[in-house]
């Protein structure tokens, strides 16, 4: 049977109830035992279960791990002997199931999936270690590992090229250099700065802030305070983002020349009279 794309495969399932009347135990083991059992191959003995019962007393159940399991990882030492606390399952029904899928060599699509009821859980057992020297040593080691911080400070005796700092961004470097350069600039007297500005504006009518900083060699924040008093900042083209003197401070050489010519003409007229 070939399944088409997007088609859900329907598998017939059968349930075998031949072992439904068998009683089984549900055993809870510590994590360190489960880790050992997961690493163990499937053809070795993992432990022995011992049940002893005296008349009028509750059955005593113990588990002893095999040497093969203990020696799977010799560096990880775990207790060998454990007791199992037994409790009876009441007021609920628990079962253990398994399943097997039947396929053919030519067709990997499952033809039939059969399920088995392996038994009904009649007792719960919890595996607990004895508080012996081995167990206390294991707990002390686990507490020590849990208390260790995820990151530790380590002193290096020589240069380790693996610990290179992250490269800094270009704009961060430029910003630090600019602030460092500005920090070296000392503020001149305000009148001296005004003289430098007026001399500069006699040569050109418009300046950007970078040129004015270069000319006056003043910190940009201090320079802007003075510029706001005597200059206007253009927000529109054709001189956008540039500074020029306010009207009341404008005095250019060309205007002086016109005034001088007008004065000469007046004086000539008076001389002719």
Briefly say what this structure is.
35% of the residues lie in helices and 23% in strands. With 273 residues, it is an alpha+beta fold.
Textual characterization of the structure:
The chain is an alpha+beta fold. Helices cover 35% and strands 23% of the residues. It is built from 8 helices and 9 strands. It has helices spanning 31-39, 67-70, 133-147, 170-184, 190-203, 209-216, 220-230, 253-272, and strands spanning 12-16, 23-28, 47-52, 60-65, 81-88, 95-102, 112-129, 231-233, 243-245. The strands form 2 sheets. Strands 1, 2, 3, 4, 5, 6 and 7 form a 7-stranded mixed beta sheet that branches. A two-stranded antiparallel ribbon has the order 8-9. A hairpin with a 7-residue loop joins strand 3 (47-52) and strand 4 (60-65). The protein is elongated, with a radius of gyration of 47 Å. The model is unreliable at 255-273 (pLDDT under 50).
Number of helices: 8
Q: Report the sheet with the most strands, covering strand number, pairing sense and barrel closure.
A: 7 strands, mixed
Q: Indicate the proportion of strand residues.
A: 15-25%
N-to-C SSE string, H for helix and E for strand: EEHEEHEEEHHHHHEEH
Q: What is the overall silhouette?
A: elongated
Strands, total number:
9
Q: Helical amount among residues, as a percent range?
A: 25-40%
Mean pLDDT level:
80
From the alpha carbons, calculate the radius of gyration and give it in angstroms: 47 Å
Distance between the termini: 130 Å
